[in-house]
Amino acid sequence: MNSIPVMELHSSTENMIKTTDTTCPYCGVGCGVTATVQETALGQKVSVVGDQKHPSNYGKLCIKGSNLADTVGLETRVLHPMLGRKAESEHTYAYTRQTADWDTATDLIANKFQQCIDQYGRDSIAFYVSGQLLTEDYYVVNKFVKGYLGTANIDTNSRLCMSSAVAAHKRAFGEDLVSASYRDFEHTDMVVLVGSNTAWCHPVLYQRIMKAKEERDLFVVVIDPRFTATCEAADLHLPILPGQDVSLFNGLLQYLQQNHYADHEFIANHTKGLEALLQSSLPESNIENVANKTGISLEKLQLFFEKFAQTEKVMTLFSMGVNQSSRGVDKANSIINCHLLTGKIGKLGAAPFSMTGQPNAMGGREVGGLANMLAAHLELENPAHQQLVQEFWQSPHIAKQAGLKAVDLFEAVESGKIKAIWIMATNPVVSLPDADQVKRALEKCEFVVVSDICQDTDTTQYADVLLPALGWGEKGGTVTNSERRISRQKAFLDAPMQAKADWWAVSQVAKKLGFSGFDFKNSHEIFIEHAQLSAYQNAEISKRSEIKHFRYFNLQGLTDLSVDEYNQLKPVQWPLIQPDQSNGDYAQLFSNGQFSHADAKAKFIATVAIDPVHQTNNEYPLILNTGRIRDQWHTMTRTGLSANLSTHKAEPFCEIHPQDALKFGVQDGELVEIQSAWGNCVLRATVSDHIRRGQVFAPIHWNDQFASDARIGKVVNPVVDTISGEPEFKHTPVIIHSFYTQWQGVFYVRDNFAHLVKNNIENVVWWTKIQTAKAVRYELADRHRFSQTTERLKELLPFDDESFEWLNLEDQTAHISHTVVLQNGQLVASLYIAPKALLPDRDWVASLFKRECLSAMHRKALLAGQAMSMGNNEGALVCSCFKVGKNRIIQTIKENNISNEKQVTACLKAGGNCGSCLPEIRGLIKACQAEATE
Predict the structure, then answer these.
(1) Domain 877-933 homologous superfamily, CATH
(2) How confident is the model at residue 32 (pLDDT cuts 50, 70, 90)?
(3) Which of 100, 195, 214, 536 sits most deeply, having the most CB atoms within 10 A of its CB?
(4) Record: fold of 622-738
């Protein structure tokens, strides 16, 4: 790594250096990282680089992982148990919380839970947890809820990203199994990326695929309604109409069958159900019909079908674009069906591959984190499995029917069926569809417990009990990534104040309710019990006929780990039957054609192409698609703190096609309101031909702490897949309007003064907050008249003593107002109100906050709102690692006649660190080449 962000934390010890190998807490790639803590007189300095030895990334990190050190500070943390929820007044929220000790907080939780059980029954209590939990936390809370409280009303935010894949795996294979590994992408001949902007959402795996493509003839297909960064290096982009994946893959299946590419020996020996599938997919037996339904040209379809048919080794990676759908399970099964038909499974370089979104979504699946699962890949509604788990746990009450899935769970909270809920490590008021319904539910709920590391989130404000959890770097345990690889996540920082592990908090409540089985002293003891349950009445594949409850998920080889062996555990894949397997070897499943169904055969699943539930109409003529962006994570409670991660896409935005922008009166860069039948939000428009006509794309990340009205979740429709319960985040009918304001502006305030102006600045009709290196930036807009606004905002700036120096420039006629505040020659704040085209370059203003003292020239430039020389204007940021902008990259490409991204890296370093920006650089090269030929 060439640039290592460093976070300073207070400490009194000097000159000690501690290095710890751990695991990144972001996406499902599960990269290994090495964290270094240096004790100095000024405090602890934390730095993070990639772990060269970890087989998931071999030292590579994306931009989020590279900037992990920015996120370990204590500024936003909850550090003590807190009791009492907010008191709402007409305009503001006044918190009535008081700090408490753990004993008081857990007493209150235990008493409230017992009251609910006594008065309303066990199903009146619910938990909503997270793929951010470590496996040990996940295991304890599921044991407590399903085995001791006796309800299955515990679901996880992983319901929102991979539950459709789980259901598809179970239908096809008999168990939730991802059969392949990342190395398969390095040995395949064709990669099909379906509904996955891999370049942005799983950058390290994408870089591995791109490296393999450089080294040999690897054909890459991207199936996505949008032209994303992932498409830049693809050989073929199929811009499918939203919701038509089943039509596409049923069409592929029919093509393979008709043209004699089926593997009849594999089908006869290892599968069942093909005839029903062939019958159900008959409407897609004509390729012209498939082209009409999918919106993909006949030529591109023919090429894709032929390539898939003629290539022996094909890897099909599918992610949120498949899973997050009202037909997500069928979409995933339609992909799996094509691999089963051709026998492209269980072989090196050939498999369907579900890519998870979170670092421990797979670990949650191992412990039965979903409301319809039991631990250790056992089935919740199977009486024999219930008996097995209850016997192992020696528990008094075992859940016997599936609990409420995420969307239904919060509807039950609002209706009063659920009286108490405990939310852990997630922010459902932002992340769930129809998110304002979640707000209403929590407002009405009798008792809300939230465990989090952040004191103020959209969800914590509804907590009657707010518990301080350990964050990344403080907690220890295991996570399992998308290739079934278990890695240690280790603590390298001391627990701050009263923050505790989630498993510890749950155990305290369990013991106060009189339950035994929760006397865990550390995460090692929990992991051993988890491993033992995985092996309980289980066996290796060669002995599966001798047991009733065979599962591939088996950690028998880890059941005797000592504390030291657990602490030093190397990344390892399951199944792991013998201890000597824990040496990092790859485990290839299904190589012997043995699946987890009772008859050991895989099942073809009959899938029928059905249009999405909600269609566009005159009132809502556009389709909203939501997803992630490169430098942010989930609801920004961590990544939003990092200046390095806040510059690439600084504001909440939506993409719209130029012809739709013209049709609906939308201009590039202007504020727009997106409205559906469920809610509305305000975003900045980006007009782009990378999106199809009739569609709008918006990111999922912004919350009410970082923007006034950008929670896209409240716009998303709450329809779910009837099998998996996963919401439809990719297809919501919406309308778009211009958002009227009298003026727009930009305000900067130095970090140590930011808390003084927060409430005043955020009273304007629209704002968004961006963290920079030394200051907080606000983009502002309002509907008050210009003259009223300027005077009101100046009055609200609390810099009125004699130590502050004010500079002002006012032009009422031109609607321009510039205000600059300094103290001892250092820039403290700057406020610019002007027509959008006359607002200053944001990066230039931010750079002046880094100066200890401003010169006379800088003062004049600041007051004018324009640098004395703008010749070095970088333009929109592309490379976050080295702060290289679009304009400089384009200039370098043209001046040096550059034809590939490596030449850009050689000239500017851009793309030479984490590689996350390489797809955008490729796109700029293509654009320059196209311009040169015009």
Answers:
(1) BFD-like [2Fe-2S]-binding domain (1.10.10.1100)
(2) very high
(3) 195
(4) Barwin-like endoglucanases (2.40.40)
